[in-house]
Amino acid sequence: MCEQLDQISPETAPHKHYVAFRYVSPLTEETVPEVVASGAKRVVLFSQYPQYSCATAGSSINALHQYCQQHPLPPDVRLSVIDRWSTHRGLVRTFAANIRAQLERLPEQVRRQVVLLFSAHSLPLRAVARGDPYPAEVGATVQAVMAELGHSHPYRLVWQSKVGPLPWMEPATDAAIEAMAKRGHKHLMLVPISFVNEHIETLHELDIEYAKDLGEKTGASIYRVPAPNDHPEFIGALADLVRTHLAEGGGVRPQLLMTCPMCTNPACFPAKRWIGETVNRA
């Protein structure tokens, strides 16, 4: 991405990326000192979650705020945020291209029978009830991809990766597969619509637990579309997002600065206020 960004935005080059994870190394508190030590004066917080959720991008911003309360950023560092990009043209085109490629591998008579199951990471219903924007943003991605495909196949949005006893968003991916197979839908294609790369929730949950194990149990043929990964269109989309952001002066979208209507997390409002103040101090 940075190589492409150097080419399409030479006026802001050179560009360098750093990675900060929430739960594995390198953590936020490990990466931020490295960025500061590099002498960087222009820092873009670029969420790799296309669809915003308080549990993902929001949690990452809270973690950054918590760290910076104890270790303030130098006053000459200019900060801005790319917090969501669920309908970016390059993301949509990548998913559509990957779906088409998988469909083209099937015989024509099978291809016509395929139902697309867009599988996204689920959320507890209590988070949805608080007003988390994630379900709507995932739905927006699905609608954009289907429009790009010309609504060529029937489809549904389903939800995976539930943990714990609390009620989560439904229909669950595995339950949907079983129910649809019983109704005679024997050719199902899983699309990991909220994931941009392969990891345990695609390689194990989708490929083994669902495509293999449930496929054998139900007698359905279950195909899986790859995540965007290193697809050239996707890498171009990432570079374009940053180029456009920088060209427009950076900053932060008003949507990020608002908490959920029924927010109960005491960390959210201070973190969002801090982001707004830090970005606008430039």
From TrEMBL:
Pfam families: Ferrochelatase (PF00762)
GO MF annotation terms: ferrochelatase activity
InterPro entries in the record: Ferrochelatase, Ferrochelatase_AS, Ferrochelatase_C
Enzyme Commission identifier(s): 4.98.1.1
Matches recorded under PROSITE patterns: FERROCHELATASE
Keyword set includes Lyase: yes
Pathway of action: Porphyrin-containing compound metabolism; protoheme biosynthesis; protoheme from protoporphyrin-IX: step 1/1
Major place of residence: mitochondrion
CDD domains per the UniProt record, alphabetical: Ferrochelatase_C
GO cellular component: mitochondrial inner membrane
Biological processes per GO annotation: heme biosynthetic process
Keywords for the protein's UniProt record, in alphabetical order: Heme biosynthesis, Iron, Lyase, Membrane, Mitochondrion, Mitochondrion inner membrane, Porphyrin biosynthesis
Family from the record: Belongs to the ferrochelatase family.
Entry protein name: Ferrochelatase
Species this chain originates from: Amphibalanus amphitrite (Striped barnacle)
